[in-house]
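Help needed: design a sequence for this.
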């Protein structure tokens, strides 16, 4: 018999505030399970208890504790691992503890903090794959964000760096696993107060006071000095700066996405070519965002893309020399050839070249030899599909084959074409609260990198209407007002 501790009955306002923060930032779906990274410190213990309290009797099903035993502090690290396992057991939560020799992995110019972060993320991904859970929650809070923003300013950062720590992102490019931070709106004092009120035990890590680490110096010396001698509210000022940077960056990203389509000259899963004259005709800041969009298309991650990289690409585009090339992080090569600016991954494992566009007969049958697909399009009326017989809408909804979709014909605007996914492509997935980038949708659906390069996008004049075979656009779904129906079937061609 399970013995539920008092924490599940908590009515502490902090727990309600965490719930509201999760809902506001849409960090978790309804009834979605989550892995919580727990070091044993006050912050992560507060997060674990708050989530357990939120989930109530469902906590043992929805919450999985993960602790990486980093081996950096000898017996203290052993005690941390034992403490986390014990605390998880007291809450009846499943727990994974795994050892890792982080010290042995340092070197090559990489600091121990960077290595430890990468190893933690790799560990979280392993736990996610073993458990089938697609979300990892960690306990970064507002004070961590302040320190991050100040650190980036002092090192030299661009607008994106000023955004600070995001509330949610993919843990690694193409992983399909989300890393979320439900405590970003809370200050360290609020977490400590919650632990005190609810008698939550935690472990103190003495390395947090070691000022040989830059972040610790910022926390212990620089920020207190700034509060005392420059601005008592320096933390709030940095957080406001971060919020405004997010506003501006979001506007620039949306603006660049709208422009990007017109710049694309050629596109496959291995190469993207832009019209260089159209690119350099934009303002410098929009040019930089367009280049970032091009890099993002290859889904290699942007963590290592610096302002210097962006500037070098823009200078290459604006220069008079053709044939010159640049090397960007992730193996991406940029070449200017007269009026073309090409982004390519030449060493990428070869995959089937995607046909640029194929016109779909409406009605009729269309063969896509490269895609190995046959698309059958048939038009009919809703009246012909009424009732509950085997050919009715009701029957189709019950059986719903994966490669078959029925659309509202009056919301479809021919001609129809099947094409490859393009940078910045967006659609409104059926059932979703709004539109999203196709790349983000595929990531959320955990579609593998190889499959993403082969996704067929069926479009009408207004944009994508079916990401074959994953989801249709909300715009073309059947509704009670539908009068005419377009039946689409995408059948794999026989091999051999």
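Sure. Designed sequence:
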């Amino acid at each position: 018999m399970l013995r539920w501790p008092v924490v599940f009955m908590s009515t502490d306002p902090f727990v309600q505030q965490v719930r509201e923060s999760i809902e506001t930032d849409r960090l978790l779906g309804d009834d979605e399970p989550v892995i919580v990274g727990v070091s044993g410190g006050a912050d992560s213990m507060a997060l674990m208890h708050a989530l357990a309290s939120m989930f109530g009797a469902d906590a043992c099903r929805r919450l999985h504790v993960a602790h990486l035993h980093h081996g950096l502090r000898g017996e203290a690290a052993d005690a941390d691992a034992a403490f986390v396992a014990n605390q998880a057991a007291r809450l009846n939560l499943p727990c994974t503890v795994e050892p890792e020799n982080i010290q042995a992995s340092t070197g090559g110019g990489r600091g121990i903090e960077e290595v430890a972060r990468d190893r933690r993320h790799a560990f979280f991904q392993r736990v996610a794959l073993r458990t089938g859970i697609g979300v990892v929650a960690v306990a970064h809070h507002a004070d961590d964000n302040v320190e991050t923003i100040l650190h980036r300013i002092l090192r030299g950062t661009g607008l994106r760096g000023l955004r600070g720590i995001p509330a949610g992102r993919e843990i690694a490019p193409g992983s399909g696993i989300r890393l979320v931070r439900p405590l970003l709106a809370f200050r360290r004092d609020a977490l400590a107060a919650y632990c005190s009120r609810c008698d939550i035990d935690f472990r103190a890590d003495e390395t947090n006071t070691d000022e040989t680490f830059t972040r610790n110096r910022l926390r212990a010396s620089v920020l207190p000095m700034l509060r005392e001698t420059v601005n008592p509210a320096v933390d709030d000022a940095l957080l406001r700066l971060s919020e405004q940077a997010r506003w501006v960056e979001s506007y620039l990203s949306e603006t660049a996405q709208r422009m990007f389509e017109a710049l694309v000259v050629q596109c496959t899963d291995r190469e993207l070519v832009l019209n260089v004259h159209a690119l350099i005709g934009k303002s410098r800041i929009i040019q930089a965002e367009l280049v970032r969009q091009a890099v993002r298309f290859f889904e290699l991650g942007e963590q290592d893309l610096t302002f210097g990289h962006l500037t070098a690409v823009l200078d290459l585009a604006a220069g008079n020399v053709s044939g010159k090339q640049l090397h960007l992080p992730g193996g991406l090569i940029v070449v200017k050839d007269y009026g073309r600016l090409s982004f390519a991954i030449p060493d990428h494992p070869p995959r089937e070249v995607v046909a640029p566009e194929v016109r779909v007969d409406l009605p009729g049958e269309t063969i896509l030899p490269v895609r190995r697909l046959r698309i059958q399009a048939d038009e009919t009326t809703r009246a012909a599909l009424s009732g509950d017989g085997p050919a009715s809408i009701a029957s189709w909804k019950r059986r719903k084959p994966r490669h078959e979709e029925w659309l509202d014909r009056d919301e479809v605007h021919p001609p129809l074409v099947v094409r490859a996914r393009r940078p910045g492509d967006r659609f409104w997935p059926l059932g979703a609260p709004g539109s999203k980038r196709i790349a983000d949708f595929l990531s959320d659906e955990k579609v593998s990198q190889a499959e993403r390069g082969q996704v067929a996008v069926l479009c009408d004049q207004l944009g994508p209407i079916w990401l074959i075979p994953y989801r249709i656009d909300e715009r073309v779904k059947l509704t009670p007002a539908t009068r005419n129906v377009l039946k689409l079937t995408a059948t794999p061609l026989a091999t051999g």
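The first strand starts at residue 34 and ends at 37.
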